[in-house]
């Protein structure tokens, strides 16, 4: 649960640095940031709702991808350690999943111009396009008007 608090804090208060284009000089072109942010936050709420068992629900690769998408939408760089926090998984697990995304061509690691000891992780144009496509598909099946138990009857 502390991990969820850290990722929420990090999303809100990550320092602004002038955005640099992703690999190949591509700037952020995503269009689904609001939907993605809602889904990412819903995953953190799930962690809160289920307590200790929530650790069994982890999908670090997906959480890293969503977190990087949201950071790109806000023009915020993400360090490798921050991406690990965004995954909600232990750092060694998160680094392994970050490497999977990198080998799939969905993220690029570059040196941090402000701190040579740390790296910056950015999404590729392909990753942004895929998240946008996924978000359009999710939106098409989402039925926000579906009542939930306990909702007031209108």
Primary descriptors:
154 residues; 6 helices; Arc Repressor Mutant, subunit A; globular; DNA-binding; DNA-binding MarR family transcriptional regulator; DNA binding; mainly alpha; 3-stranded antiparallel beta sheet; disordered N terminus; WH_DNA-bd_sf
How would you spell out the order of helices and strands? HHHEHHEEH
How much helical structure, as a percent, in the residues? 40-55%
Largest sheet: 3 strands, antiparallel
CATH superfamily: Winged helix-like DNA-binding domain superfamily/Winged helix DNA-binding domain
Q: Tally the helices: what do you get?
A: 6
Mean pLDDT: 77
Rounded to the nearest angstrom, the radius of gyration is 16 Å
Q: Uncertain runs with pLDDT below 50, 5 residues or more?
A: 1-26
Distance between the termini: 35 Å
Strand content: 5-15%
Structural class: mainly alpha
Strand order of the largest sheet: 1-3-2
Proper CATH architecture: Orthogonal Bundle
The 3D shape can be described as globular
Instruction: Count structural domains.
Output: 1
CATH domain class: Mainly Alpha
Here the CATH topology equals Arc Repressor Mutant, subunit A
Protein name: DNA-binding MarR family transcriptional regulator
Keywords: DNA-binding
GO molecular function, one term: DNA binding
Organism: Sphingomonas leidyi
């Amino acid at each position: 649960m502390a991990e969820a608090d850290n990722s929420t804090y990090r999303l809100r208060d990550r320092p602004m640095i002038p955005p640099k284009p992703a690999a190949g000089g591509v700037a952020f072109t995503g269009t689904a940031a609001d939907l993605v942010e809602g889904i990412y936050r819903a995953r953190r709420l799930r962690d809160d709702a289920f307590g200790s068992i929530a650790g069994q629900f982890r999908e670090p690769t997906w959480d890293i991808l969503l977190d990087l998408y949201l950071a790109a939408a806000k023009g915020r760089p993400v360090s490798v350690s921050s991406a690990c926090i965004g995954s909600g998984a232990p750092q060694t697990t998160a680094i392994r999943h970050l490497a999977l995304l990198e080998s799939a061509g969905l993220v690029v690691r570059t040196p941090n111009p402000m701190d040579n000891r740390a790296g910056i992780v950015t999404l590729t144009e392909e990753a942004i396009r895929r998240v946008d496509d996924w978000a359009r598909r999710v939106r098409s099946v989402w039925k926000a008007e579906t009542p939930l138990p306990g909702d007031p009857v209108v």
